[in-house]
Amino acid sequence: MDQQFLDEEPKEMSFVDHLEELRWHLIRAVASIVVFSIIAFLAKDIVFHDIILAPARTDFLSYRLLCEFGQSLGMDAFCIDEIGFTLQSRQMSGQLSMHMLVSGVIGLACAFPYAFWEIWRFVSPGLYQQERNNSRGAVFFVSVLFILGLLFGYFVVSPISINFLAGYQVDPSIVNEFDLNSYVSTLTTLCLSCALMFQMPVIVFFFTKAGLLSPEVMKLYRRHAIIVILVVGAIITPPDVVSQLLISIPLVMLYEASILVSRYIRKSDLKKLNENNTI
User: Residue 11 phi/psi, 5° resolution?
Assistant: First the structure.
């Protein structure tokens, strides 16, 4: 659907007209978030029991798959028998406030593709024809990478981090009783951070197009990037090799994919430049 708007020629509009059009795009984007938030609010049992609180239970899908993987190697060390913490709500309106907050976050996540499409509809007519041609499919790729990042954060990063933090103790006499706000904040922060991190190929695409980045620069700093990824993986995961690899390998692959994107864009631009010089 965004293809239709990319192909349209930009029309001359006054500043007030631009503001009016932007207002309607924002209204539709916010409306989509509100609609999904209301749906999430009404589906309380599914949202909290099956989604938000699922990583806090031992029957979570990621824990089961990790256990099966360990058993296939003849090891039971990867099986999680218990999650060493309890959740509490210490404020009178704590659960209601968290219900509303979680509904808003899920509404934002579900409506993101449409909301981004609305913003893109406003921005794209102001681009030159060549810029619009270069950015074809932007809505699709941004949306897909956002969803993949959310899934990676939810099924990989969050359960590993939650399980590690739940079992970490400075002294056996201290019992982990986490506040609901702390748990939800950790979960949503990890998921949304991964969703943003997965936008790396798109960011690299536009930076390469703008001449601000090149595959040579990314290759030059590849080792630095890998070290940063390993450090981040070591911080948010338990101190074992398997957990760190589960986090680090996909991020390294994402960086390598970004190098390929940058290389493809550079070759494409050089080819077009040579063709123009030949004519």
Answer: -105, 145
Residue 89 CA neighbour count, 13 Å, CB half: 10
Where in the sequence is the domain holding 82, given as residue range(s)? 2-198
- Asked if residue 14 belongs to a domain, the reply is yes
Instruction: List, in order, residues 6 or more apart from 11 with CB less than 8 Å away.
Output: 125
Instruction: Confirm whether 48 is domain-assigned.
Output: yes
Asked whether the beta carbons of 258 and 200 are under 8 A apart, the reply is yes
| Residues 157, 162, 164, 168, CA torsion sign | positive
Q: How far is CA 146 from the centre of its chain?
A: 5
Residue 191 lies in a domain: yes
Tens of pLDDT, residue by residue over 15-32, are 677 788 889 999 999 999
Residue 125 lies in a domain: yes
Tokens for 129, please give them. 């024809």
pTM confidence score: 0.82
What pLDDT band is residue 242 in, cutting at 50, 70 and 90? Answer: low
Q: What is the DSSP string of 17-66?
A: HHHHHHHHHHHHHHHHHHHHHHHHHH-HHIIIIIIISGGGSTT-HHHHHH
**What distance in Å separates the CA atoms of residue 204 and residue 221, rounded to the nearest whole number?**
14
Number of domains the chain is built from:
1
Residues 265 and 201: their CA atoms lie apart, in Å, by 11
